[in-house]
Amino acid sequence: MATSRKKLFIKTYGCQMNVYDSGRMADVLAPLGYEPAEEAEGADMVILNTCHIREKASEKVYSELGRLRLQQQEKAAAGERMIIAVAGCVAQAEGAEIMARAPHVDMVFGPQTYHQLPEMVTRAVRGAGGVINTDFPVESKFDLLPGEGATPQGPSAFVSVQEGCDKFCTFCVVPYTRGAEYSRSAAQILEETRRMVANGTVEITLLGQNVNAYHGEGPDGRTWGLGRLIRELAEIDGLRRIRYTTSHPRDMDDDLISAHGQVPQLMPFVHLPVQSGSDRILAAMNRKHTADDYRRIVDKLRDARPGLALSSDFIVGFPGETAEDFAATLRLITDVTYASAYSFKYSARPGTPAAAMAEGRLTEDDKSARLEAVQNLLAEQQRAFNAGLLGTVQEVLFDRRGKHAGQLLGRSPYMQAVHATAPDRLLGQVVPVRVTAVSASSLGGEVVTTESVHGAAQQGAAARPPFISPDIKANHQEMTA
Ligand code: SF4
């Protein structure tokens, strides 16, 4: 039976996991005739894929729903229907409250239910009242979603390997909105990645809320950790780069650390959130590690892969954070040094233990002052890190066109945005680029020739140890073919 074409607009908030989930929702809805649209206007279905991590997340969703209501009414006046759905963590946390406050919403569903979307859409289309689904179903959505990688994902793609979290940090909603930690089977992940690579993907980022807690079943019947999974993925011909995010220090085991020294495709950049440098605050956050535990892990990572760069997350102004606690955070940043980082003022997430901590709450002014101090220090480190790459040759994966004619944009091994004048045929390729300009947040460079690659490889080895893989020459031949 032919399915009529319908337009689907998904607005994604928050993390890479949500970006990935939005892609999967589009995959699930494609057989029902829904095709991706660039904007909400005129769409037959609009899904807000929400994030609950940041402050006022739900208020932002409600104001967006207000705007969508007008568009829904315009469509209705023309005799057409716009289905409005709220998915993701705000949907999971607020559930029926969303329908109560915004009755024009047709579907509210949590992150564990995306495989049930066709059934929910059928119910919504029948119009028998709003559909609310915030279950944690017994079946795994990963087993029931269509296989990832069947359609081209582009040069750089996400692969979800685990979801949920059992850590229960006292400030975080993830264990409540995403549920208990669950790892996909290694066979599924390997198969999907092979398909993606066959379709032109050269870089994958393994995704999970607590990705290094990965403990999936291997094809040998044993439980594989993330290190083992990465080693197997690295065997896939044509896969040039592997990344993973987001990690917890407690799950950074020796096998994963040693993979950083042994797997050239594993990029020398790790996002390893620490949140605070004070043991007292780390305990209040229920982080299950101390500041020195974190320092030791960083040392081991850098021993395994010299030149490895780090990013992190910091929360300032957690309830009870004293001036000494805050000074410990600044000390930790100074000791570790970061290539980039995210930092936020603490703000209470309803339903989390920290939201009930009344003692020692800081004023907004105090939190702002601390945030400024942390951000100044981190920005200084980021500038210094970028400046240290000036004149070196970095492998850049060009994944899109730049704003200017003849310009391509890509990412360095350290996730810096890099722009260079380069022909379109280099899109989707890992290309040696000499860094000729640095700014606070990006690099500019020139694509180098075969001869200069060899010179630069030697020069790079003597200076900072950014990784120049052995296949750099092969890649260069490819790009000049
Ligand atoms: S480990 Fe990460 S996802 Fe899990 S509770 Fe803590 S902050 Fe949230």
TrEMBL record:
<keyword id="KW-0411">Iron-sulfur</keyword>
<keyword id="KW-0819">tRNA processing</keyword>
<dbReference type="InterPro" id="IPR038135">
    <property type="entry name" value="Methylthiotransferase_N_sf"/>
</dbReference>
<dbReference type="Pfam" id="PF04055">
    <property type="entry name" value="Radical_SAM"/>
</dbReference>
<dbReference type="InterPro" id="IPR002792">
    <property type="entry name" value="TRAM_dom"/>
</dbReference>
<dbReference type="InterPro" id="IPR005839">
    <property type="entry name" value="Methylthiotransferase"/>
</dbReference>
<keyword id="KW-0408">Iron</keyword>
<dbReference type="InterPro" id="IPR006638">
    <property type="entry name" value="Elp3/MiaA/NifB-like_rSAM"/>
</dbReference>
<dbReference type="GO" id="GO:0046872">
    <property type="term" value="F:metal ion binding"/>
</dbReference>
<keyword id="KW-0004">4Fe-4S</keyword>
<dbReference type="InterPro" id="IPR007197">
    <property type="entry name" value="rSAM"/>
</dbReference>
<feature type="binding site">
    <location>
        <position position="169"/>
    </location>
    <ligand>
        <name>[4Fe-4S] cluster 2</name>
    </ligand>
</feature>
<dbReference type="InterPro" id="IPR058240">
    <property type="entry name" value="rSAM_sf"/>
</dbReference>
<feature type="domain" description="MTTase N-terminal">
    <location>
        <begin position="6"/>
        <end position="126"/>
    </location>
</feature>
<keyword id="KW-0808">Transferase</keyword>
<feature type="binding site">
    <location>
        <position position="15"/>
    </location>
    <ligand>
        <name>[4Fe-4S] cluster 1</name>
    </ligand>
</feature>
<dbReference type="Pfam" id="PF01938">
    <property type="entry name" value="TRAM"/>
</dbReference>
<feature type="domain" description="Radical SAM core">
    <location>
        <begin position="151"/>
        <end position="384"/>
    </location>
</feature>
<dbReference type="InterPro" id="IPR023404">
    <property type="entry name" value="rSAM_horseshoe"/>
</dbReference>
<keyword id="KW-0949">S-adenosyl-L-methionine</keyword>
<feature type="binding site">
    <location>
        <position position="89"/>
    </location>
    <ligand>
        <name>[4Fe-4S] cluster 1</name>
    </ligand>
</feature>
<dbReference type="InterPro" id="IPR013848">
    <property type="entry name" value="Methylthiotransferase_N"/>
</dbReference>
<keyword id="KW-0963">Cytoplasm</keyword>
<dbReference type="GO" id="GO:0035597">
    <property type="term" value="F:tRNA-2-methylthio-N(6)-dimethylallyladenosine(37) synthase activity"/>
</dbReference>
<keyword id="KW-0479">Metal-binding</keyword>
<dbReference type="InterPro" id="IPR020612">
    <property type="entry name" value="Methylthiotransferase_CS"/>
</dbReference>
<dbReference type="GO" id="GO:0005829">
    <property type="term" value="C:cytosol"/>
</dbReference>
<feature type="binding site">
    <location>
        <position position="165"/>
    </location>
    <ligand>
        <name>[4Fe-4S] cluster 2</name>
    </ligand>
</feature>
<dbReference type="Pfam" id="PF00919">
    <property type="entry name" value="UPF0004"/>
</dbReference>
<feature type="binding site">
    <location>
        <position position="172"/>
    </location>
    <ligand>
        <name>[4Fe-4S] cluster 2</name>
    </ligand>
</feature>
<protein>
    <recommendedName>
        <fullName>tRNA-2-methylthio-N(6)-dimethylallyladenosine synthase</fullName>
        <ecNumber>2.8.4.3</ecNumber>
    </recommendedName>
</protein>
<dbReference type="InterPro" id="IPR006463">
    <property type="entry name" value="MiaB_methiolase"/>
</dbReference>
<feature type="binding site">
    <location>
        <position position="51"/>
    </location>
    <ligand>
        <name>[4Fe-4S] cluster 1</name>
    </ligand>
</feature>
<feature type="domain" description="TRAM">
    <location>
        <begin position="387"/>
        <end position="449"/>
    </location>
</feature>
<comment type="subunit">
    <text>Monomer.</text>
</comment>
<dbReference type="GO" id="GO:0051539">
    <property type="term" value="F:4 iron, 4 sulfur cluster binding"/>
</dbReference>
<comment type="similarity">
    <text>Belongs to the methylthiotransferase family. MiaB subfamily.</text>
</comment>
<comment type="function">
    <text>Catalyzes the methylthiolation of N6-(dimethylallyl)adenosine (i(6)A), leading to the formation of 2-methylthio-N6-(dimethylallyl)adenosine (ms(2)i(6)A) at position 37 in tRNAs that read codons beginning with uridine.</text>
</comment>
